Amino acid sequence: MERQCQDSHPIFHNNVGGAIFAYFVLELPKWLGYEAPVKRTRRVLVRVSDKSTSNVEGDIDDQMPVTHYDAAIQWEHPTLSDHSYAACAPPHLPLLCNQATQCTEPARMHVCLLRSDHLCVLYTGLSLDAFNSLADDLIQGYNNCFQLHPKDQLLMTLMKLRLNLLQDDIAERFRVSQPIVSKVTSCWLDLLEEKVRCYIPWLPRETIQATMPQCFREHYPNTACVIDYSETPLQKPHNLDSRGESYSHYYGQNTIKYLVAIAPCGLVMLISPAYGGRCSDKFIAASSGFLEYLRPGDEVMTDRGFVIQDLLYERKVKLMLPAFTKRGMQLSEEGITNTRRIA
Distance (Å, rounded) from C-alpha 26 to C-alpha 19? Predict the structure, then answer.
């Protein structure tokens, strides 16, 4: 009777269940050859910047220095949080820069390319000091509407004139697009034509005679200038009128034509405005203003084929031409000598 009461009591059942649970948890692993897990003390997270040797809450048997960090449990660095623009970057993090999102000033090509006088003459035909002086003179009052530095724009234009590079090649060198190269060169050509005209003066007669070479003094002492016409090929215009005005029968293509006058010492004294290749030499000489610089008694030396004797005769100026044959006849001895002297 008592046995039945003990079995039916709930406390008795609890004690039996607890004993069975303790047996399976503690005794059975030892009987099967396993050891019970050792209960370890819980570690406490310590700030790296906290150098104080004060006691940390909790019982730590052996406190070892932390050599590695878990990203999931680390304290957030104040410089990595938003709106901390004034904070400096952590010393252990690399300094990163995304060029696609930065607003840094682009590299100046005139500094990279024009490192010496030899390179400056190669690219522009000017010495380094002459290039800097010319750039300083042209930049004054220049309204820069491009992102490139004004000296880079001048260098780009002079490289086009000096080397006749393709616009795509110049665009690749300066890291810009081809339309930008076209707009920059067109803008600076107009600026150069306006401001550089003063660098091409017509020398006085006294200066021409004082700087005249010995060969001119012996045979042609009154020579004022040597003239010639030059033509530059053009792309065929779409407009039919422009195509007809610029077509040159001598070269068989569309060209622009201009008059160049050079002093006996070799200095360029005059470059006329550009005309269509169809214009005659006489028309260009009369309308370019070349005749206004000549004085009575001057001599003008040129190549055969220039029929401007009537224009010069009115101003009492002599035209010196190499001798040429007429109707298949040979040159006389005097004509050969005169032609050799002029050549």
Answer: 10
Can you spell out the DSSP letters for 319-341?
Answer: EE-----STTPPPPHHHHHHHHH
CA angle 123/256/134 to nearest 5° reads 35
Question: What is the DSSP-derived secondary structure letter of residue 147?
Answer: S
**Angstrom distance (rounded) from CA 342 to CA 255:** 28
Displacement of CA 245 from its chain's centroid (Å): 36
pLDDT band at 143, cuts 50/70/90?
A: confident
In angstroms, the CA 281 to CA 260 distance is: 12
User: What local confidence, expressed as pLDDT, does residue 6 receive?
Assistant: 44
Q: How much is the pLDDT for 109?
A: 84
* pLDDT tens track for 52-63: 444 444 444 444
**Residues 299/320, Cβ–Cβ less than 8 Å:** yes
b/e string for 292-307 if b means 16 or more Cβ within 10 A?
eebeeebbbbbeeebe
Query: How far is residue 118 from each of residues 185, 234, 266, measured CA to CA in Å?
Result: 23, 31, 23
Q: Write the burial class of residue 290 (CB in 10 Å: 0-12 exposed, 13-18 middle, 19+ buried).
A: buried
Q: What are the residues facing 160 on neighbouring strands? A: none
Cα gap 2→319, rounded to integer Å: 155
Q: What are the pLDDT digits (tens) for 161-195?
A: 999 899 999 999 999 999 999 999 999 999 998 88
The structure tokens listed for 77 are 């660095």
Strand segments (E) across the chain: 223-233, 247-248, 253-262, 268-271, 275-276, 299-301, 318-320
